[in-house]
Amino acid sequence: MRRFDPTPLYRASIGFDRMADLFDRMLSTDLQAPTYPPYNIEKTDENAYRISIAVAGFAADDLSVEVKEHALVVTGRSSGDDSARDYLHRGIATRAFERRFHLADHVRVMGARHVDGMLHIDLVRELPEALRPREIAITRGDSPTRELVEAASDAA
Fold it and tell me: Do residues 19 and 49 both lie within one domain?
């Protein structure tokens, strides 16, 4: 398998080291990604997202949702004792799982709800004011850059 070389990205960008590492990690992992439990990711607004995970057979107390190191970690541990039951067919899996979702910078988990066998996790992307687009005034004439820097420092 060919490895992704992020070197060209480093030449033309600054501060995207984490993204290049994420691409490298995604391409180097095994192609057999876990499929249990199934999930959807939907965009509910311009800066809002929802992850819906099918968790049939799990109670809300059996599930855990954590955010650690730019990753959303959803864990399910079945607390039911099935040894007393005699199944003729068992098609609903309630085995333990851990599902990880890598979060971009400034994405925050707003909350999680367990409804009708589905776990819904709402996320929102909140850009700080310093990262929002702003227009830069263009001055005319011979005003030196030093005067602009002094004016900016006086305003701060």
Answer: no
Bridge-based pairing state of the strands 107-115 and 118-125: antiparallel
CA-CA-CA-CA torsion sign (18, 24, 29, 32):
positive
Q: Are 134 and 71 in contact (CB under 8 A)?
A: no
> Closest Cα partner for 63 from 49, 54, 71?
54
- DSSP states of 33-51: ----S-EEEEEEETTEEEE
**Preceding peptide of 8 cis, ω within 30°:** no
* pLDDT tens digits along 9-43: 666 666 666 666 767 666 666 556 678 899 999 99
CA-CA-CA-CA torsion sign (32, 70, 65, 122): negative
CA pair distance 17, 24, nearest whole angstrom: 11
Report angle CA 6, 11, 15 to the nearest 5 degrees: 80
Tell me: do 9 and 46 sit in the same domain.
no
Joined together, the tokens standing for residue 95 give 């085995």
**What total number of domains does the chain contain?**
2
Q: Give backbone dihedrals phi and psi of 124, rounded to 5 degrees, phi first.
A: -140, 145
